[in-house]
Predict the structure.
Amino acid sequence: MASAAQMTPSHGPRKSILELAPLELDCMNVLWSLGEATVQQIREALIPSRPRAYTTIMTIMDRLARKTVVARQKHGRAYVYRPQLTAEEARGHAVQQVVKGFFDGSPEALAAHLSSAAGASASNALRPIEMPLRVTESALRPAAGATRNVRRAETQSPAAAAAAEEKSVARSKLDASLL
């Protein structure tokens, strides 16, 4: 039976890198890039994207050590952590879990899914823009009150946008004639 440290609240022992919590995976990514590191070094690397207290990172690294995902060795007052598997091994294991869990163990089904998803993304990127942006002189130099109508037109249907633009142009001409 798995130890309490390896048990998730309701799912039994963790069997996959996919089952690492997001912060655990972030710590592992830092550790893979550094090779080995102390809690302070991991924390400093995470600050730009995920600032956390020193004690939070220390707790996460302790959990990873208890799960045997990392090894640690005491150096002075701090532990130095090293990953027990490479990032490539973790990715391979994660892909195996995705194939097993979502594609009935068929790598071909995963490949077909990725191929169709990539094709859909490419076709969406190549689809022409349905509402081309029209810039008019009145939009470049709006008269008093016209800016509101131009901004409102950007979120309206093409017909409503055209009507709002005509109204804006008419106001600009009226304002110009009053000067």
